[in-house]
Prior knowledge:
The structure is a single chain. The chain contains 10 helices and 10 strands. It is an alpha+beta fold. It has 3 domains: 9-122, Butyryl-Coa Dehydrogenase, subunit A, domain 1; 124-235, Beta Barrel (Butyryl-CoA Dehydrogenase, subunit A, domain 2), CATH 2.40.110.10; 238-381, Butyryl-CoA Dehydrogenase, subunit A, domain 3, CATH 1.20.140. Strands 1-4-5-8 form a 4-stranded mixed beta sheet. Helix 6 runs antiparallel to helix 9 (353-364) and helix 8 (318-343) runs antiparallel to helix 9 (353-364). The protein is globular and about 80 Å long. Bound molecules: flavin-adenine dinucleotide. Flavin-adenine dinucleotide binds next to helix 4, strand 1, strand 3 and helix 10.
Amino acid sequence: MALDFDLTEEHNMLRKMVRTFAEKEIAPVAQELDDKEEFSILLTNRMGELGLFGLCVSEEYGGSDMGYLSYIIATEEIARIDGSQAATLAAGCSLGISPIYYFGNDDQKSQWLPDLVTGKTLASFGLTEPDAGSDAGATKTTAYLEGDRWVINGSKIFITNSSTEISAICVVQAVTGKSQDGSKELSCILVPNGTPEFVAKPMHGKMVWRASNTGELYFKDCRVPKKNLLGKRGEGFHQMLETLDGGRLSIGAMGLGGAQGAFECAMKYSHEREQFGRPIGSFQVNAFKLADMYTEIEMARLLLYKACWLADNKRPFSKESAMAKLVCSETYHRVANHAVQLHGGYGLMKEYPVERHYRNQKLLDIGEGTSEVQRIVIARHIGVPGKAL
Ligand SMILES: Cc1cc2nc3c(=O)[nH]c(=O)nc-3n(C[C@H](O)[C@H](O)[C@H](O)COP(=O)(O)OP(=O)(O)OC[C@H]3O[C@@H](n4cnc5c(N)ncnc54)[C@H](O)[C@@H]3O)c2cc1C
């Protein structure tokens, strides 16, 4: 009997530990941080102390190597309470740490990973540009070699964790030349925060994840050592695709955890709120709504955990991570909408966490590849004619 739906004791203990942390330390401050658009160094450090940034990193660099499923359970539990802190964790791990861990050389890993894994510092992944969003290969930022240095010019937008006081390094995708077939040669280069002519500016006014950090980056003849190249020259596009495969699992976890949190709020309110002399959850239309929400969440969980199982067993998981990201984010979308509906007018007030869930879910339809892009990825995997563009 190879099929086993039981989580291990280790997974259950991790879930309990992260749930306690999120309920005791994040929940009391989440709304205030959201109101003030304030990034929390304290909570980031705490997530580091609890080992949450190192769940997929080997002990050599300070991690626990517990695997994708553990990381996804931790992210899910944080997102159940607050999307902003989950975003800091998910982007910190999947977009910040992963490329350095998987493609960096020993020197780069020893230099950057220990502090990233303990949450003392953050790394970011600079892919998106003003004119290169879904079409990530349309990167305009350039890097050329001048002696033993890369000279970088260009800009990036919407980069998570890139402009806080503890942001230490950005993995920047740049055009470094032309490939043999005439296409752009893309490479990733490590650019430490604080490098002259590298400006990282926080962006304000977000509807979603207001307590997470999002930055605009500018490079104007910014020089970094030649040895800051990540992996081999010309491998940037491939590195980006692999990084996003893992990242989609964590966006899936944010959708799943957020949906679970919104559902629990709705269930509690359905018991407490009475109209026409009865709890509103006892009206059949609302009971069915809650049953549908619960069922959809369970479907999303099965798909996401299967994708994690594939990743942990070193099997291909690109298609499954795209499917899990799509289903989990669209589940959150529907569940948060129902949860607000069940709260009536109170659901529109900041006093109730469903208001934050309703806003935060929207990012998941857009970040790390929009829902349309996930459908393109899935369509290509299943062999539709053409490129599904
Ligand atoms: C809060 C936040 C954090 C982010 N963090 C990061 C980060 O850390 N690093 C990073 O590099 N990026 C980050 N991003 C950027 C994010 O990945 C992009 O916003 C996303 O990929 C979409 O790109 P775009 O916004 O340019 O939209 P566009 O690509 O302009 O898309 C606009 C619309 O057109 C649709 N569309 C585009 N092409 C097609 C097509 N071929 N077929 C059908 N529909 C299509 C899209 O689905 C979308 O609905 C972040 C964004 C936000 C808002």
